[in-house]
């Protein structure tokens, strides 16, 4: 039986060139980047070169990139670090109801520590209104955190417009760009972004490494203590092989970003076309005009998520019900709940398919046929 991986939004396979780069560094470079001798300087060059490449990818400055263990830590650092560092200016934070749990649970923690959080609603496509952001802004608002693109339905938020709105406000603007980075053009200066989170394993890099972009001048209080690594923001010896792999993954994905984007659009269209040809009942969740090309969240009336995923898996297709951080529990999606309501059918019959490195047109055609076969099995 052929197997098809359709859960790239959860994680992606490491690119062979990234594996090669990391293996070379692990074999050859073992000095501590903080040491001043030759071995340390060799390791420091690896870290500095990666920081340069990553900074360039979002039009940031070299010293505005902080290496972390991934998107979750970057989100935590951005929210907790800026909240506690700026509480003298106010304790109000704005976010949305569809954020990743790395943001939502961090906001809950901040609420328990005396901060006030406004959770903005979204429309049926999963998009937040710029007008709602404007109405929620207060003189004591210190942080606005709105994801660049949603990890469950792929909806892209109006980041540029929100950045413009906040240009003359004291609030810092943070965006979780974990799903968007490497597919959408990101210019932190042009978009007026103060803080931005990214994870390497979504772009065919290694797990356990990411970065936080922190605009120069942003007040951010560190919450790990030790050495003076990462501009005193994150203590601890840098993971040099992972950083080297991250750099290689960024170079690869940025070299043909538009070409990859266009191909994923074709994959998405071919997949939906394949479902239509099978004459089954389905509805695409999310925005038609503002969506990531590699994520397709689909509601299949008359089916149930758990049985659907099990049947897909038995047929060789690996998909999910939403965020990888909650898919194991199969709890109703907070994203779909915010879009359609707590009692909506979409919460219980929606599947997320996502494509990436190695996915072919033939693959999506076959995945569509298998999906239709499962739908017919479950609804007849």
Automatic annotation (TrEMBL):
Kindly state which reaction or reactions the protein catalyses. Answer: (sulfur carrier)-H + L-cysteine = (sulfur carrier)-SH + L-alanine
Keyword tags = Iron, Iron-sulfur, Metal-binding, Pyridoxal phosphate, Transferase
Q: Does the keyword Repeat apply?
A: no
Q: Which SUPFAM superfamilies match?
A: PLP-dependent transferases (SSF53383)
One Pfam short name: Aminotran_5
This chain's protein is named cysteine desulfurase
Identify the residues that the record assigns to the Aminotransferase class V domain, covering every copy.
Answer: 5-366
**Family affiliation:** Belongs to the class-V pyridoxal-phosphate-dependent aminotransferase family. NifS/IscS subfamily.
What is the organism of origin for this protein? Answer: Pallidibacillus pasinlerensis
- This protein's record includes keyword Transcription: no
């Amino acid at each position: 039986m052929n197997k098809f991986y359709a859960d790239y939004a959860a994680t992606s396979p490491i690119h062979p060139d990234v594996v090669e780069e990391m293996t070379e560094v692990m074999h050859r470079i073992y000095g501590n980047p903080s040491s001043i001798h030759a071995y340390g300087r060799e390791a420091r060059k690896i870290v500095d070169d990666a920081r340069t490449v990553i900074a360039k990818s979002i039009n940031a400055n070299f010293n505005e990139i902080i290496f972390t263990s991934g998107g979750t830590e970057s989100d935590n650092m951005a929210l907790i670090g800026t909240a506690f560092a700026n509480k003298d200016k106010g304790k109000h934070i704005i976010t949305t109801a569809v954020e990743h749990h790395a943001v939502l649970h961090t906001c809950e923690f901040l609420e328990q520590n005396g901060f006030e959080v406004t959770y903005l609603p979204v429309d049926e496509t999963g998009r937040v209104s710029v007008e709602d952001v404007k109405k929620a802004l207060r003189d004591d608002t210190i942080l606005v955190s709105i994801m660049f693109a949603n990890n469950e339905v792929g909806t892209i938020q109006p980041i540029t417009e929100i950045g413009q709105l906040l240009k003359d406000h004291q609030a810092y603007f943070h965006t979780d760009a974990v799903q968007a980075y490497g597919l959408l053009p990101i210019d932190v200066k042009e978009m007026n972004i103060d803080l931005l989170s990214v994870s390497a394993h979504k772009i065919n890099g290694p797990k356990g490494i990411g970065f936080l972009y922190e605009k120069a001048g942003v007040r951010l209080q560190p919450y790990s203590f030790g050495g003076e690594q990462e501009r005193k923001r994150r203590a601890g010896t840098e993971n040099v092989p992972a950083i080297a792999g991250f750099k290689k993954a960024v170079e690869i994905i940025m070299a043909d970003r538009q070409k990859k984007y266009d191909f994923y659009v074709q994959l998405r269209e071919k997949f939906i076309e394949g479902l239509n040809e099978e004459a089954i009942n389905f509805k695409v969740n999310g925005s038609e005009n503002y969506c990531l090309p590699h994520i397709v969240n689909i509601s299949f009336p008359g089916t149930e998520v758990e049985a659907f995923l099990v049947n897909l898996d038995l047929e060789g297709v690996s998909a999910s019900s939403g965020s990888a951080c909650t898919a194991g529990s199969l709890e109703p999606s907070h994203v779909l709940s915010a879009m359609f309501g707590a009692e909506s059918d979409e919460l219980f019959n929606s599947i997320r398919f996502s494509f990436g490195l190695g996915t072919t047109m033939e693959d999506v055609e076959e995945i569509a046929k298998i999906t239709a076969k499962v739908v017919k099995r479950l609804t007849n």
